[in-house]
Design brief:
This protein is an alpha/beta fold. The protein is built from eleven helices and ten strands. It binds 5'-O-[(R)-(carboxyoxy)(hydroxy)phosphoryl]adenosine and zinc ion.
């Protein structure tokens, strides 16, 4: 019975996981409304908001699981990657609990957590090797998984994460934050072939790049010759839009460009490493056209976490922690944050 805590970004989350796969409780306090006014996560604001709610969130996780600290076997906490200030709140809280209870403490990689969001809540047998595509606001990673805790990092974004591109383009189009769901919705009536946006690095290895795409969208939506601006000095913040611009067409074409690259590289990796399954996780895995394109093109099973586990949560940290606990991992109270920490 594991109590897990996740505070790497802008959700304060706690969960109780039994046997690695059963969710006894999963509480997520989102700060989305707090950050919407900035059009993105404001790190200092995020850290302060974690402090305010973490005790209540942990207590609620125990209450909903109908357990007390005495019923637990271990404490797991996200150690990184993530925002330093946010991670520190979760880690210090978990250390305090470990000190007070004597329970073993384990630091867990947030990306490994996303991978395990596919294990939790399911009894389905899962076959290795697995190709993992983790697509969120902070990450775009392709990871080969050959067993529990066995990873090879195949590639990742060299600039913006896929979700970050959705958020930035959403802001350009004056759509509500976060951009991902807003763009998906706006794209519903649009023509995905209206604009020929670049599919960067398609067919070239397993790394991704989304910043050129974002710049192309900006050029397409801004009125021609706005002021004395030159390329590169244009602001990615909200600005005037071209007259008569079809937001649905831009949204659909942008989304199609992101989806095409994500699907192509994932399927190429799956073929190259003889994968038995494909796991897609992280906030962008909620994207409907992404799921439809995988369904149409993938020759092997493609799995997704349940929608409420696509975005950040602590259940996935507890699930990853379970396998680490079984493998004997125990961390000391000297556990420190790891703001950058690739899965390997
Ligand atoms: O995993 P997550 O909650 O947080 C991070 O660890 O970053 O992912 C949030 C990201 C945001 O960038 C959001 O715009 C994106 O996931 N997202 C989507 C959709 N739902 C959320 N992107 C595309 N389509 C969606 N339906
Ligand atoms: Zn995440």
């Amino acid at each position: 019975m594991i109590l897990a805590i996740e505070t790497s970004c802008d959700e304060t989350a706690a969960a109780v996981i039994e046997g690695g796969r059963q969710i006894r409780s999963s509480i997520v306090a989102s700060q989305i409304d707090l950050h919407a006014q900035y059009g993105g996560v404001f790190p200092e604001v995020a850290a302060r908001a974690h402090i305010e709610v973490i005790s209540a969130v942990v207590q609620q996780a125990l209450d909903e699981a109908k357990l007390t600290l005495n019923d637990l076997d271990a404490l797991c906490v996200t150690q990184g990657p993530g925002l330093v200030g946010s991670l520190l709140i979760g880690i210090n809280y978990a250390k305090g609990l470990a000190l007070a209870t004597g329970l073993p403490l384990l630091g867990i990689n947030h990306l490994e957590g996303h991978i395990y969001s596919l294990w939790v809540g399911t009894e389905a047998p899962i076959e290795f090797p697995i190709i993992n595509l983790i697509v969120s606001g902070g990450h775009t990673e392709l990871i080969l998984m050959t067993g529990h805790g066995e990873y090879q990092h195949l590639g990742g974004t060299i600039d913006d994460a896929a979700g970050e591109a959705f958020d930035k383009v959403g802001r350009l189009l004056h759509l509500p934050y976060p951009g991902g769901p807003s763009i998906q919705k706006a794209a519903e009536g649009g023509d995905p072939t209206a604009y020929d946006f670049p599919r960067a690095m398609q067919g070239e290895g397993f790394d991704f790049s989304f910043s050129g795409l974002k710049t192309s969208v900006m050029r397409a939506v801004r009125p021609p010759h706005v002021g004395p601006r030159t390329a590169g000095h244009e602001s990615l913040k909200e600005g005037d839009l071209r007259e008569g611009l079809s937001i649905p067409d831009v949204a659909a074409s942008f989304q199609a460009a992101v989806v095409a690259v994500l699907v192509q590289k994932t399927l190429q990796a799956a073929a190259a490493y003889g994968a038995k399954e494909i796991f897609i996780s992280g906030g962008v895995s909620a994207n409907r056209p992404l799921r439809e394109t995988f369904a149409a093109q993938a020759p092997i099973p493609v799995r997704y976490p349940p929608l409420k586990l696509c975005t950040d949560n602590a259940a996935m940290i507890g699930a990853a922690g379970y396998y680490r606990f079984q493998a004997g991992q125990r961390d000391s109270l000297g556990l420190d944050v790891r703001p950058t920490w690739p899965v390997s």
